[in-house]
Amino acid sequence: MKGLRILVVVGALVTPLIVGLLFTYEIIKVDWISFMEIQPSYRPMEDPLPLPQGSVPVEGPAFVPGVDWPNPVPADEVSLARGKQLYQIYCAVCHGPQGKGDGVMRAYMKASPPKDLTAQDVADKPDAALFATITNGTANMPSFRDLTPRERWDIVNYLRLLQGKLAESESGQ
Predict the structure, then answer these.
(1) How far is CA 52 from CA 36, 64, 84, in A?
(2) pTM for this prediction
(3) Which among 47, 102, 118, 134 could disulfide-bond with 96, CB atoms 3.0 to 4.6 Å apart, if both were Cys?
(4) Sequence ranges of the domains in the chain
């Protein structure tokens, strides 16, 4: 009987304390700090953060949006051979072996066929624009960011060879 009396007295004292704490929480709204809440968020599909002024990527100068960056890779035999190999792996399936837009996938892309890479409008684009297209892709073309910047520049050099612009630039020097 004595244990029951003590339990009733403790319950009578603790109940208003608990009710008071709940009432206080409803008024004060104390927030528990969570480290995830105070960190800056970055959604994976957002554009990458802008580059700091005058910075150069770790892999070397690759591409800076808004800047007509010169091709840092000389169009030598090694670059052209590597560019041809990479073109055959990644590009020829849609653009064809000579870049005419007649690859085997053309039959499946009737709404928006692959571009003729030897056409004048593509040949007139600067190297940086071709590099950006290879890097970021287009509506129908996937991004090839997995290739190193050197490999992407090698593909640009090989495209210039297919366009016949490489011989012009070498004879002009």
Answers:
(1) 26, 11, 34
(2) 0.61
(3) 102
(4) 1-29, 77-172
pLDDT tens, per residue, the chain with 173 residues? 788 888 888 889 888 888 877 776 666 666 656 666 666 666 665 566 666 777 766 655 555 666 677 888 999 999 999 999 999 999 999 999 999 999 999 888 888 899 999 999 999 998 988 998 998 888 889 999 889 989 999 999 999 999 987 754 443 33
Return the amino acid letter for 120. Q
Asked whether the beta carbons of 153 and 74 are under 8 A apart, the reply is no
